[in-house]
Amino acid sequence: MVVTTSWYLALAAVLFSLGSVGLLTRRNPLVMFMCVELMLNAVNLTFVSLGADLGDLGGQLSVFFVLVVAAAEVVVGLAVIVAIMRRRPGATADDLSVLGG
Amino acid sequence: MLAVATPEVLWWTLLPLLFLSVGALLLLTVASIVRHLPDTVPQAWTVVTGLVTLVACVPMWQEVHDTGPRSTLAGSIAVDGSTVLVTALLAIVVVAVALLARPYLRREDLPGVELYVLLMLSAAGGVVMASADDLIVLFLGLEILSIAVYVMAAFHLRRIESQEGAMKYFVLGAFASAFLLYGMALVYGATGSTRLALIAEQLSTTVLVRDGMLLAGVALMLVGFAFKVAAVPFHAWTPDVYEGAPAPVVAWMAAGVKAAAFAAMVRVLVVSLGTHASDWTPPVGALAVASVVIGAVVAVLQTDVRRMLAYSSIAHAGFLLLGVQASDADGTAAVYAYLVVYALLATGSFAVLTVMGGEGDHAHHLDDYRGLARRRPVLAGAFTVLLLGQAGVPFTGGFVAKLGVLASAVADQGYWVAGIAMLAAAAAAFVYLRILVSMYLEDAEVVDGVTVSPTVPAGARVVIAVSCAGVLFIGLVPGPLLTLTRDAVPVLVGN
Prior knowledge:
The complex is a heterodimer. Chain A is mostly helical. Chain A has three helices and no strands. In chain A, helix 1 (5-25) packs antiparallel against helix 2 (29-54) and helix 2 (29-54) runs antiparallel to helix 3 (58-87). Chain A is elongated and about 50 Å long. The termini of chain A are far apart. The mean pLDDT of chain A is 89. Chain B is built from 19 helices and two strands. Chain B has helices at residues 15-33, 40-67, 81-108, 113-131, 135-153, 160-191, 196-205, 211-229, 237-244, 247-272, 277-300, 305-325, 329-356, 372-375, 377-391, 397-411, 415-441, 458-476, 479-487, and strands at residues 70-72, 77-79. In chain B, helix 3 (81-108) packs antiparallel against helix 18 (458-476) and helix 6 (160-191) packs across helix 9. The interface between A and B is large, with 44 and 41 residues.
């Protein structure tokens, strides 16, 4: 059995869907961040496999940028969580409901 | 020895970017070395950086006008009229937000330097977005812009609303970025390049093997963009974030972030994917209609002025999308004119909200505006001009802007879309009238025998006066702006 590019693309699509469903349904902020990471890494897999398929280095190059961005994003997200947890220990996403009209 | 090929760099095209990012880093360094920096220093530094950036745009505009648009850094940065226009717009908004920020930070007793640093870094990201000629560069610009804004939204340390809004903005923003990036990956797979010029060339010269992948990619990118510009049905974060974030930061989100996001959107959709316009104009038109209708209708139900303006910003995004879906030079020129006018309206309006918030930043209920015309007649008058501008009343800039996008939609046979948008604009006018009625026809609340009047700091005065003057000027003499935006239509460069 030959594993072709489309297998990788399908795996990436599944991972991306898992990440997006997880982000929308989970309530623990840390798990939500993990879901964001899962989505971004699914995109990375897509980039790499498409780049290999096209014989183009651009796809692999993109992954470096995405990795850096993902790291920076999580740093900021964790800082916001820490700020919230100081005020309200043990808060989940559902507890953040002061706003709304 | 292996020679490394380095790309040609036109340094003058990078000047605004360098000013903003180096300005931010210098301020951060100085602020961490010098103890007890007076709070006027970071503000003055930010204002000067913004003004220098603005001044640098003048020779850039001239150069682009004389010698034509071009691409640099191995086709990753494009410099054309739209780049320079949006850069100048962002610089102006940076100056305005810096003027609003200091009295706000002092009133709320917050430490200040980081806000200015993040503001300048965010603007640098916006400049990257406006000049990106490559999908990955665009993504980097978007993230530089967004990550700074996530922190700015959480800046009020003592209001849990500020952090809650930032958390929501962060989660949905990251979600949107992932969608946008996935769309970029698929477009890359379908066309074999992330460079906009090469994508356009590939699309116009060959029949794609992976047509479905391109469509999926464009759809995912649309979702990502729609989140960032707050178009219905991807708008859920907007009212909460506008309500929670510090008011000067909201001014930046409404004016700056929206301008950068639309500049990027126009460049990707209209310029690069213009040959496949028939694929993406129907969904963009649907987003536009949904945004103008929902934005106008739901705004009527709000009682918090920040949430009203949040929904009205959603309606404004719908009008801007109307110009995008026309997918021609007239449509994009109308979008840029709208962006300029909306930047003035949004900074002015949120400057008023910054002032009205009062200590603790919570006096934003419609009742807090009762009788403002008697307490602060000038402030109420200025807010009237800005609200009428947002409603699109003739002789204000808002009318010129709305007319432009509607005309471009009609010229593109979008009669239904334009008709619905006009009806929605009429409904939206009711929202602004509610605030006006509250300010002029109702009596102020009397607390302990006195009515409280907001104090208007000098910085806010300047911002409100300039934005009002700009809105009225564009409304009375629209010619210069329309000429300017016609010269700023983005073009394809870099192949």
